[in-house]
């Protein structure tokens, strides 16, 4: 039996293509590890909590309730959204929370494994995959609640709802690609994590999360250029059964994000040893 | 044919390390900034030679070795000599700054036991977590679960959350999982120091059993252990190899010499006597350490100054080894050694015939107490270093004379 040979040296003489292949194959090989890690974190989180899965959607629900109150009480005047405002607001905050979670996921999963990264050699891609698993679990709960909302407010179920997971997959691909690029720097400097939290708060206001895109003005331009807008709108349209207006834009964003995601994986693979060295010392 | 194949695999070099170097930065902020730069050059694939930048130093410098199956390399050196960094490079956790490592086969690392444990989850669940990180599949763990639990001797507590385990129990569980690996190359850092004696013995039994078919790299400060299992040794100092070869005993002596502070320490005195002179009787000295042949006579001279009215004292002469472990004591004096006349000092000589301590460096702790009241009077540690010369390397503290004779067999 031929033994597997590993070479560790300074120069990286492996091509990007080979790195991507190795990265994807490691990800496939380590799917048990990834599942185990995700299962571990989910179990541990819920075992030490009474409210359990309520925490998965309490944040977006609270934000939505605030906006519903602001709108209903007449404190602010929002333009007509075409669907009952509670459904609009809640679908917006839920989808938004999924996007934010996907951006944070690669960094959080890697950072939480800091202790073992510096001591044990295992396929690091498993961390990313476990992050995706956790994301899917969380999103599934959120989507379930969203469907309840849609039924309660009498918007009615549509066949297009079946395509909603595809839109969510788009959101996860977009978020993970962005998150992956931020991860190496974010592991070195705590600032990156703060900037993401901070930045996402502002970004929410230039995305049609709790209000629709205005008809005219600067805001319209900014919101239209924001690549999260098509993801948000397509996802929402699929939930409530409208014809997705921004479908082409959504697909274009996806087409750009997939190669970026692969590039992100390569960068991640190259950077981990460099970062581990600075983490452990 | 199969036989010869087997032999060729046995002689194959499993670990090859050539000119390995690694640098570290002393300042955190600078280190992080270099990290950013390294990220950029890492992604762009720069192949420029890496020189020391400001505030950097070589943590590992120009290490070379080869290791085959069945061989064990010991890495020794003081804290911060670069041993753990070297292990991290060998384990592929960090990349070297120069040189190359080639490793063949499955690599197992006993650097941290119980990686991936979550304190909230039960021992059983954590076996799966830890096993997954070590590279086992679910099926493999299912099959080994019972063995692991019984090896760890935790049958009773396996469904209890790990946070309620004692540290020893955690290590036991971690080792039990790690022991299921069948590595070609095994990297061991000092992880086995926790756990009770029974478990430590069990660990070494396991390691002993996998030694013959594995190439082992072993970091330890436990020199008897090093000399017992290692076939090769590297003594590291400030990142570079100070001594390298298969003369394990010589490296260990060099290691001890770095700590041989010939400073004695008075740990207790009630100010009634004072040690004014002491000596090991020997014809040869090296660095003011007496050199004695194994099997000869050991002789000490002591002289005390009397500070207050003298009483009848007992003199405890304790021989300690290089690690300050007491290993033998000379019988105390039966008679009163104190002077009858009004002499301000007194002296005596102590002899021990047929010295059977094994090769190595020893020193003396001297304790004096009053014979009747047993009250301690004076104690001094680390005096009179002496070295026993013998051609044979022995890691047990004594090499006793023996005679073997053929007799007629009693069972047929």
Please explain how this structure is put together.
The complex is a heterodimer of chains A (281) and B (412). Chain A has 281 residues and is mainly alpha-helical. Chain A has one domain (22-42, 52-280). In chain A, 73% of the residues lie in helices and 2% in strands. Chain A has 11 helices and 1 strand, in the order E-H-H-H-H-H-H-H-H-H-H-H. Chain A has helices at 16-29, 31-47, 54-72, 85-112, 114-117, 125-152, 164-188, 190-205, 218-225, 228-240, 247-280, and one strand spanning 5-9. In chain A, helix 4 runs antiparallel to helix 6 (125-152). The radius of gyration of chain A is 21 Å and the shape is elongated. Chain A starts with a strand and ends with a helix. By secondary structure, chain B is an alpha/beta fold. Chain B has a domain at 265-389: abc- transporter (atp binding component) like domain (Coagulation Factor XIII, Chain A, domain 1), CATH 2.70.50. In chain B, 26% of the residues lie in helices and 34% in strands. Chain B has 9 helices and 19 strands. In chain B, a hairpin with a 5-residue loop joins strand 15 and strand 16. Chain B is globular and about 85 Å long. The two termini of chain B are 39 Å apart. Residues 1-8 of chain B have low confidence and may be disordered. At the A-B interface, strand 1, helix 2, helix 5, helix 7 and helix 11 of A face helix 2, helix 3, strand 4 and helix 4 of B.
